[in-house]
Design goal:
mainly alpha, Arc Repressor Mutant, subunit A, 5 helices, globular
Length: about 120
């Protein structure tokens, strides 16, 4: 007789799903306007509070990457990534690097678009 709570030892365990609103404490919008192509930089010497595992992962991969790339690398939805990045910006741990100015060359613009597309494809 098998119990409904027993599982087949040959069956792979199912991944636990964590709802996005749990990661962001119910927030759906970032405190900072973050376009997908915005490039992020770590703030040198900045110390902040203890971070959640997901926020720590975002912080670990965000330097010199776009919001879209961070989302893809952390395998988090873009909305969750934006909220967490907004928190990290407000805490002074990262900053938004100016992405395109009047002085930005065509090659730099193309490279930014390619990185953003690569991040979106990986998502």
């Amino acid at each position: 007789m098998t119990n409904s709570h027993d599982h087949d030892p040959d069956e792979a365990p199912r991944p636990r799903l964590i709802r996005s609103y749990t990661i962001t404490s119910g927030r759906t919008a970032a405190a900072v306007d973050l376009p997908m192509e915005a490039t992020l930089r770590l703030q040198a010497g900045a110390e902040g509070p203890v971070l959640s595992p997901v926020a720590a992962q975002v912080l670990e991969v965000c330097d010199r990457r776009s919001v879209a790339e961070v989302s893809a690398l952390t395998k988090q939805p873009i909305g969750v990534t934006r909220v967490l990045l907004g928190d990290l910006i407000e805490q002074g741990l990262i900053r938004i690097q100016a992405t395109i100015t009047e002085k930005t060359s065509t090659d730099e613009r193309l490279e930014l678009m390619e990185r953003t597309l690569r991040g979106l494809r990986n998502y």
